[in-house]
Amino acid sequence: MAYAFTFWTCYVLKREYEIVAAMRLHFLASEHRQPDQFTVLMRNVPPDPDESVTQLVEHFFLVNHPDHYLTHQVVSNANKPSELVNKKKKMQNWLDFYELKYSRNPSQKPSMKTGFLGLWGETVDPIDFYTSKIETLKKEASSKSVIPAAFVSFKTRWGAAVCAQTQQTRNPTLWLTDWAPEPRDVYWDNLAIPFVSLTIRRLIIFVAYFFLTFFFMIPIAIVQSLANIEGIEKALPFLKPIIEVKVIKSFIQGFLPGIALKIFLIFLPDILMLMSKSEGFISRAALGRRSATRYYIFQFINVFLGSIITGTAFQQLDNFMHQSANDIPKTIGISIPMKAMFFITYIMVDGWAGVAGEILRLKPLIVYHLKIFFLVKTVNDREEAMDPGAIGFNTGEPQIQLYFLLGLVYAVVAPFLLPFIIVFFALAFVVYIHQVINVYNQEYESAAAFWPDVHGRIITALIVSQLLLMGLLSTKEAAQSTPLLITLPILTIWFHRFCKGRYEPAFVRYPLQEAMMKDTLERAREPNLNLKSFLQIAYIHPVFKEVQESESDPASEESDQEPVLIPTKRQSRMNTLLPSKHSGSMTSLG
């Protein structure tokens, strides 16, 4: 059965890798013209006392890419202006609130105090006060400080692909190029981080993550040891009469460990995302992938291994930490069958209930009503409160991977766990299709960049299940069959290396043949295309775009014809312009 599950898993993985890789290449080939197709991110531009960063970048690309270079946009440090713009937004909300209040009752002019929470201080006219404050913040937010990085755009996709996938100078630490994320995928706050500090930051975060992961086993071990009848009666003997009640005893034995473990994991995704942001990744997709990887490793160590070791053999934990590495699979193999019931309850508490919570969205509903009651003052506030956000790949994907791990581990050892996992996947399939199509907004487009990570984690789960099965069989009368399983990890690793070499390049490189085909077709269809105007402002920081729009002449804006707005199914800020002949395919996607 171990061979059967391994071969079937590898067959399905190979087929899926082929399908996903083909879909990715088809999407990239059929995608409409986007700024990231022509743009690379240049980082670590060396300083020059005689030239500015923008002059350096322009001179470098005119010399080294003379036939393909088109334009560039130097990156500015917008962290300080961003804070000022956020502050301006809050003041604009208050200004809108008082103007609305005054328009409803013109006979009574509003007033406010400038002190803390409006409790004391000088009494002023809030409309004049906030108007002057907003004008001051506009001037401060316009200031820019340039950093040694730039978004460089090319005349063709072929030129961008060559630049993004090659080394630019002899020194591999200078003039570093990589594909630019699409404009909405850029995580602008990290572009201002000096390149030389990234290695130090990642070392510090790695150490912090190591301690977070392994020291987190201590509270989990305590909870798992107390979340049973004997542990609670020993720690709190006065509760013994209550605990012995049949209903309470069943609840403690069946659901309390899973609930306790879920409570401990509530704040973990936010902590891991904060760590990823501190490492300096420049795109939201990269942040999501790194957070997902760490979330999965954390769950593997603390939820899977931690629950097995500390829940069934807490008294042997010290021996486990000091024993030979060869004995670890044997120790865990003994514990796995004993924890099957715990993982069944964990699947029901975390998996089934989690899917039900996803469709109900109780937390966003409660947060929305709290915002409406306490924070909403204007229409803009209401629209922001109604924003559903984007689907959380950094938490949902590794959670699904954990159930893959449980299924592969228990498929041979305790198959009665599989129906519970199948029910979870069936429910999740239906619910998440509905949520993606009808609820969540799309935050960015990564063209299936997550898939190699998904494939790698399933392969890891497969190898772990094989090693633990070998450890379990070595303790049984069938110990002589253990050598027959040694071939499985070897074949699985070979299969992974085959898929990595055959399919993964489609996810990390852009074929020059595809780029040339798209460029040729585009030149034939639009010979007079002005690509420079399309790319010149694509990568301006949203803060500076907003400042420029607020500084534009309001009279000229009023003279322009207002576009017709059509609300979407959700009455939120996701309103769109009247669809053109080119937008039919996008509107059909919801």
TrEMBL record:
<dbReference type="Pfam" id="PF02714">
    <property type="entry name" value="RSN1_7TM"/>
</dbReference>
<feature type="compositionally biased region" description="Polar residues">
    <location>
        <begin position="573"/>
        <end position="590"/>
    </location>
</feature>
<keyword id="KW-0407">Ion channel</keyword>
<dbReference type="GO" id="GO:0005886">
    <property type="term" value="C:plasma membrane"/>
</dbReference>
<feature type="region of interest" description="Disordered">
    <location>
        <begin position="549"/>
        <end position="590"/>
    </location>
</feature>
<keyword id="KW-1133">Transmembrane helix</keyword>
<feature type="transmembrane region" description="Helical">
    <location>
        <begin position="402"/>
        <end position="434"/>
    </location>
</feature>
<feature type="compositionally biased region" description="Acidic residues">
    <location>
        <begin position="549"/>
        <end position="561"/>
    </location>
</feature>
<feature type="transmembrane region" description="Helical">
    <location>
        <begin position="295"/>
        <end position="314"/>
    </location>
</feature>
<dbReference type="InterPro" id="IPR027815">
    <property type="entry name" value="CSC1/OSCA1-like_cyt"/>
</dbReference>
<feature type="transmembrane region" description="Helical">
    <location>
        <begin position="334"/>
        <end position="355"/>
    </location>
</feature>
<dbReference type="InterPro" id="IPR045122">
    <property type="entry name" value="Csc1-like"/>
</dbReference>
<feature type="domain" description="CSC1/OSCA1-like cytosolic">
    <location>
        <begin position="37"/>
        <end position="190"/>
    </location>
</feature>
<keyword id="KW-0472">Membrane</keyword>
<keyword id="KW-0106">Calcium</keyword>
<keyword id="KW-0406">Ion transport</keyword>
<feature type="domain" description="CSC1/OSCA1-like 7TM region">
    <location>
        <begin position="201"/>
        <end position="473"/>
    </location>
</feature>
<protein>
    <recommendedName>
        <fullName>CSC1/OSCA1-like 7TM region domain-containing protein</fullName>
    </recommendedName>
</protein>
<keyword id="KW-0812">Transmembrane</keyword>
<feature type="transmembrane region" description="Helical">
    <location>
        <begin position="247"/>
        <end position="274"/>
    </location>
</feature>
<feature type="transmembrane region" description="Helical">
    <location>
        <begin position="203"/>
        <end position="227"/>
    </location>
</feature>
<dbReference type="InterPro" id="IPR003864">
    <property type="entry name" value="CSC1/OSCA1-like_7TM"/>
</dbReference>
<keyword id="KW-0813">Transport</keyword>
<dbReference type="Pfam" id="PF14703">
    <property type="entry name" value="PHM7_cyt"/>
</dbReference>
<dbReference type="GO" id="GO:0005227">
    <property type="term" value="F:calcium-activated cation channel activity"/>
</dbReference>
